[in-house]
From TrEMBL:
Catalytic residues (UniProt): 345 (proton donor)
Gene3D superfamilies: Alanine racemase (3.20.20.10), Lyase, Ornithine Decarboxylase, Chain A, domain 1 (2.40.37.10)
Family annotation (CDD domains): PLPDE_III_PvsE_like
Record organism: Dyella marensis
Name by which UniProt lists this protein: Diaminopimelate decarboxylase
Length: 431
């Protein structure tokens, strides 16, 4: 098992929508059953002594969090907004609060939450947090996020550490950080945090990194006489969009972890906080083809929606894989290469370029897999004021629930309300 998610439940829903709906289809569909199977598989493969958190910035939709909740130890927030949202949605789960540029008000909020660990990114942030914690009658758990160079791990485009970045503290700052922790007993150092790679597809290299994290944490423990129990080894497990089976080898990694833990943990627990690898496969973006045209010798299919909903292809700089669900019309083109675009008045609104298709006609549906992470929530949704896509969450028991996105106020105030059954045809009737 890897990052596979069967299209069948999604295609069945789309076929039904096609009959019901008078408007061309434009939707996100999330397969919550597939998500549950996947997170469960990830969890069950992890060796004893490891914790699994979900980095909510990959996809913070409430049904996604709800589906993951029984299988994760908690959730990671990368902003004050996410922290509030996670606390509201999952009040019983431990939270982690990381990310650069935290406001004092957000530090106050995090310190007041019943079970929230702060990932401190700099000496300045540690000083601000210390001043806040001094006035409290409870301890505040902190991890220091460190940016270290790991010998033997070459610099790649994907490295987020071991070179100058805004993330984490330099090892040179550690003596001062430790001194500050000692002066402010309300701050309780519970561990160190490392997130040096994103899009990591090499399980061996990730094992080397984890080993290095454990070794350096144990070295600091001894050198500074520290008492902490956990190393957070971050997320960043990579997805190969063109060939999902070449994505990060989670099972191989978990197998290798046992040996690493045996030899290097020395009593420390390991914590992971992946986002993309957890939720990417459960989401699909569907667009109905509105128009097919030839322009200066090349074919274009213009479909309902675009990168204002699904920015993943330009964000990754790739041609996103897709499937075609043929409609009732005779093909307008056959055995041609076609560029798939959306409705935006910009040449950047491209989801895949010059792709070979067997047959395509207006009314066909383009179905993009691997749209469950860094997709809808990284898109510039208000650009051109097109309506939001339809949202459906497939689950065996309830079949589906639907959320309608309502625009309100500023970019951070995207109102979320449940659609009233009368305003949208409800897929809950689907079987
Ligand atoms: C974004 C982020 C993650 C999750 O990264 P993925 O690539 O989605 O797994 C985890 N930890 C930190 C600190 C992050 O910034």
């Amino acid at each position: 098992m890897t990052l596979h998610c069967s299209p069948e439940p999604v295609e069945a829903l789309l076929a039904r929508w096609r009959i019901e709906s008078r408007e061309p289809i434009c939707a996100y569909v999330y397969d919550l059953d597939a998500l549950q199977r996947h997170v469960r598989w990830m969890r069950e493969a992890l060796p004893h002594g490891c914790e699994l958190y979900y980095a909510a910035k990959a996809n913070p939709e409430a049904p996604v969090l709800r589906t993951l909740a029984p299988w994760v130890d908690g959730f990671e927030a990368a902003s004050g907004g996410e922290l509030r949202w996670l606390h509201e949605q999952q009040p019983a789960h431990p939270l982690l609060f990381g990310g650069p540029g935290k406001l004092d008000s957000e530090l106050v909020l995090a310190a007041a939450l019943p079970d929230c660990t702060l990932h401190v990114e700099s000496l300045g942030e540690l000083a601000r947090l210390a001043a806040i914690a001094d006035g409290l009658d409870r301890n505040v758990p902190v991890f220091l996020r460190m940016n270290i160079a790991v010998p033997g791990i070459g610099d790649t485009r994907l490295m987020m550490g071991g070179k100058p970045t805004p993330f984490g503290m330099d090892e040179q700052d550690l003596p001062q950080a430790v001194a500050m922790l000692r002066e402010h007993p309300r701050l309780r150092l519970e561990g160190f945090h490392f997130h040096l790679m994103s899009h990591q597809r090499d399980a061996r290299m990730q094992l080397d990194l984890v080993r290095a994290y454990l070794d350096v944490a144990n070295r600091w423990k001894a050198a500074y006489g520290l008492d902490f129990a956990v190393v957070n080894a971050g997320g960043g497990f990579g997805v190969d969009y063109a060939d999902p089976s070449a994505s990060f080898d989670w099972l191989g990694f978990c197998t290798g972890l046992r040996g690493v833990l045996d030899r290097h943990a020395n009593g420390l627990r390991l914590r992971f906080e992946p986002g993309r690898y957890v939720s990417v496969a459960c989401g699909w973006y569907a667009m109905e083809v509105l128009d097919i045209k030839r322009n200066h010798g090349e074919w274009f299919a213009v479909a309902r929606g675009g990168t204002h909903h699904f920015r993943t292809p330009p964000a990754q700089g790739h041609d996103h894989p897709f499937r075609i669900l043929r409609g009732n019309h005779a093909p307008l083109i056959e055995h041609e290469r076609v560029t798939l675009v959306g409705q935006l008045c910009t040449p950047k609104d491209v989801l895949a370029r010059a792709q070979p298709v067997e047959a395509l006609a207006p009314g066909d549906c383009l179905l993009f897999p691997l749209a469950g992470a860094y997709a809808w929530n990284i898109s510039h949704q208000n650009f051109l004021m097109h309506p939001a896509p339809r949202m459906a969450f497939l689950q065996a028991e309830s079949m589906a629930e639907e959320v309608c996105y309502v625009r309100a106020g500023g970019p951070n105030q995207l109102g979320r309300t449940a659609a009233s059954p009368s305003s949208l045809p409800s897929p809950t009737q689907a079987t």
